[in-house]
Amino acid sequence: MKYRIGRVLISEGQLREKVKELGAQIREDYKGEKVIFVCVLKGAVIFFADLLREMGPEVDAQFDFLAISSYGASTVSSGIVKIQEDLSTDIHGENVIIVEDILDTGLSLSYISKLLRERAPKSLEICVLLDKEERRTQPVNVKYTGFKIPDEFVIGYGLDYAGHFRHLPSVHIAEPAE
Ligand SMILES: O=P(O)(O)OC[C@H]1O[C@H](OP(=O)(O)OP(=O)(O)O)[C@H](O)[C@@H]1O
Ligand code: HPA
Ligand SMILES: [Mg+2]
Is 175 inside any structural domain? Predict the structure, then answer.
């Protein structure tokens, strides 16, 4: 393996606090409404599960899943976004929030936003835990952002390097193994 677990960038405690903050904002904005939360597999799964538990009874929250892939076994985007599994819900006329672990080049989220917008939801917003702003090549409009992070490849809390390290409870920098 070319990378190993490096220093902690965002601790479990910081993640917990931020998820609560984002959850409270979304809960406030959508109280009394139905929202379809779209988890972008696989990276967003841990953030999604934690965030959705913050919705409480005030929001009529429903789940759906979208599987895409562009990084594969690399730390560089292939530049091609592939839909591996589409939503199973009709989002026409619904409030939709896309939940993502990281916004890097913006390729994945710009592709997903366009795809879902064509299905005419009532509203469409994005909630992203990490934003690697410097790397953006595609503009993406995000309503809810957790942390702005530097241009480092990160792992843990759902984020992988070649399928490894998603289970780590904190976000770490991936460090070259040599
Ligand atoms: O802004 P971008 O440059 O498009 O990068 C962000 C995307 O890349 C990663 O997913 P990946 O395609 O590696 O699949 P995964 O979620 O299964 O890890 C990450 O989870 C985001 O979905
Ligand atoms: O820094 C990252 N780590 C893991 N997956 C990613 N996908 C885009 N950027 C990253
Ligand atoms: Mg992903």
Answer: no
CA distances from 173 to 12, 44, 49, 126, 130 (A): 14, 17, 23, 24, 13
Domain assignment present for residue 134? The answer is yes
- The identity of residue 30, as a single letter, is Y
Q: How many domains does the chain have?
A: 1
**Closest residue by Cα to residue 124 from 104, 141, 136:** 141
Q: State which residues form the domain around 141.
A: 12-151
For the stretch 101-111, pLDDT in tens is 999 999 999 99
SS3 at position 114: helix
Q: What CATH number has the domain bearing residue 88?
A: 3.40.50.2020
103, 113 in Cβ contact below 8 A?
no
Ligand 2 atom with minimal separation from the 159 CA: 4
> How much distance in Å is there from the Cα of 74 to the middle of ligand 2?
9
| Dihedral-angle region of residue 93 (phi above 0 means left; psi in -120 to 50 means alpha; beta otherwise) | left
pLDDT band at 31 (very low <50, low <70, confident <90, very high): very high
Nearest CA to ligand 1 atom 17: 42
